[in-house]
Amino acid sequence: MDNLYGQIAEAIYAGDEAEAEKLAQAAIEAGVDLEEAIQKGGIAGLDRLSVDYDNLVVFLPELMMAADAMKAFLKVLEPHLAAGRSSDTGTVVIGCAKGDLHDIGKDLVRTQLAVNGFNVVDLGVDVSTNEFIKAAQDNKANIIAISSLLTTSAYYMGEMISNLKEDGIRDQFKIIVGGGPINDVFAESIGADGYSKTAFGAVEVCKKLIKSEPGAKLIVVE
Length: 222
Hints:
By secondary structure, the chain is an alpha/beta fold. The protein contains nine helices and six strands. Strands 2-1-3-4-5-6 form a six-stranded parallel beta sheet, sandwiched between helices. The chain is globular. The two termini are 26 Å apart.
């Protein structure tokens, strides 16, 4: 299957939506582990692109095309991933912080949470603090998951936690944060409950958060 995964990685890297969709269907028909196809195919392509972006080999347009290709790839896979999931583990409200329009990481986390039995409420991008809190209350969420790829939007992660404290409802929700500029030190500094830099790690954090008590030590899964 390494050849198929390599083809998927190449399609994502090249930002080829049509090829990504075709290869997603091929993975389904071949009966491969679809989570493995995402990790060894899609994410591998994104990782390679990220390295080339840092080295000025590719630029923002290539990143945007790759993100669209990854979305197309996941869209084909998601119904088949969800079909085998267990009963709901808990409810997670997820979105990108205010001012952030980069949703590929958020989409990966959403998909993996759904596969692992969570009820996921996706608020999309550029989500304000009040929108996160209202959605969490309306959906009786256990966890609020916030993603940010911009240092400027990361500010709103801390703002939301502060607002929850001011409203006297901080203990009603567990907060997990992640994204490019986010790390465990930042997560702890704002009083978050969990942090991971990967989609698969985020799922493990959420599983642990469901069982943790309010005020517990920051949960980190790299």
